[in-house]
Amino acid sequence: MFLAWRELVFARARFGLMGGVVALIAILVVLLSGLSSGLVNDGVSGLKRLPVTAFAFAEGTKTDSAFSRSTVNVNLAEVWKSRDDVGDAAPFGTMLVNAKATTSAGAQVPVDLALFGVDPGSFLAPAVSDGAGLGDPDGIVVSETVLDEGVAIGDTVVIDRLGTRLKVVGTTGDQRTFGHVDVAYLPLRTWQQVHAGAGPGDEVRDGAYEEATAIALRARDGDRIDLPGGDAAAGTTSMTLDASFSASPGYSAETSTLTLIQVFLYAISALVVGTFFTVWTIQRKHELAVIRAMGASTGYLMRDTLIQATVILTVSTAVGFLLGVGGGSLLTTTPMPFLLEVGPLVLAALLLIGLGLAGAVAAVGRIVRVDPLAALGGQR
Amino acid sequence: MTTSSTSPRPDSLRSGTQERGGLLMEGVTLTLGDGDATVTALDDVHLEVAAGEFVAIVGPSGSGKSSLLAVAGALTTPDTGRVLLDGVDITRASAREKARHRRERIGFVFQSGNLIPALTTLDQLRFALDVAGVRPADGHDPRELLGRVGMGHRAKHRPHQLSGGERQRVGIARALVTRPAVLLVDEPTAALDRARSDDIVTLLAHETHESGVATIMVTHDHDVLGHCDRVLSMVDGRLSE
């Protein structure tokens, strides 16, 4: 402790350089964490805001793309609803469409929409902050982000190719996106027509009104549902809401890429710190031999080095995070998906400090091999 | 650890000029190297240095002088014989116990001081006390000791701001501040001119007699031997008067 502080001050340029590298890495970690959270939010915030415990997809649906592949019979909702641990169950339809909105000023705005087909009377029906709720066959309730694109309540939205005309009647007042596309709630029956590819006046094929993407399930208490048991009874493949995120378009690819980059940053940070303290220890080899000859225990010397590592890591991580959060908050005003969440940031800070310390610990192992005998003689 | 490791030395051994045990080496042999290339560094060495006595050991390079310091200083375990420091047998101590003997019973003065670059003169002494786990109480006052070695005016300077002689004075003060029983001095004048060498050895002799430490100085420098109580010479690992 005595020497650790004085060396930090004495060799402040060297420690500062290493701290600067760690701080820069910390900034990158914050930005990536924000980007990661932002992408997740962009990808699945529509799902996160559903009052749903789990989804039951068609039996045998591949997990990674269940939302675009699965089609289930709406009557399966009744099978699930009859189970003791299921509080409520309702058919849920989703699909991505391209559309054009015509504003009151007469301008045409292209919009991409993730249609969420829900029964207006079911527990899935969205709460609206502005305008009216679901009810009219052609009335849609949209994510706040749609309004940011210049569309207003009362505007008409026409789905490309089909020509289905929908009317914006309300907004949820928050961001609801799915696969980076803004969510528009519409009545399940209208969704079924669009899903069957039937435009205005077209004949809707047989069975279309019995189709949905999945059955949305809500647990009676907490989040406990016997999914395997229900699957066996209903003939479905179900997964929890969290598990269903990876069934959303692009979700796994995006998050795994960003996670990989962050893992690399942690590894680089640990290596930088480890390398620094290895060189630092080698440089002071003779000095360490003198201190050992004076009778310092190995623990005394290791403690000193680890105190130095802890101080440098904590200070530089804190500085990097402050700069990262400051810079990142500027990004949240841009269309870039960026979201700073306390949980992931705290975890990232602890990982940076923890892994940096691990690097330092690996380096100070050299102290054990410093022979106090080297203090005798004329090396200096 | 033995029980003695946790109990402090009696106060009589810690304070001031009271008599301490000095150093005793009996039949110490040390062989260095392995296989065909072994060298007998110490050959049946007997040496007794009383508290307050200043002994110089001279001899050519490779005669075993450094090995003698290493064995007396609990840095190396001899092959045979025994070493008593301050009445305590350190011959078969573990590495951990040796470190404790070094910080409690031994002071080293190295060539050209070997001070810690990051520390001021005063902090060199306070650091030695910190390593030894000693509070700067009576008899351990670093400022008082710096004054005694003539370095009181350089308390805030770092090693690179000091001359060779000044560094060596600080090195001596650092070795003495923990009040060791034995002071082991390795070629203290190797980097100094004639006048400075004389000053340093005079200081060592004075401090040895004042503080009652048993001092062994290994040196090449025959000009400084006049200040020593006894001069021994070492040739091929053998010690003689």
From TrEMBL, chain B:
Region (Disordered): 1-20
Entry-linked SMART domains: AAA
Keyword set includes Chloroplast: no
Keywords: ATP-binding, Nucleotide-binding, Transport
Keyword RNA-binding: no
The ABC transporter domain, residue ranges: 23-241
Pfam family, one: ABC_tran
Biased composition (Polar residues): 1-18
Domain of life, source organism: Bacteria
MF GO annotations: ATP binding
Annotated protein name in UniProt: ABC transporter ATP-binding protein
Record organism: Microbispora hainanensis
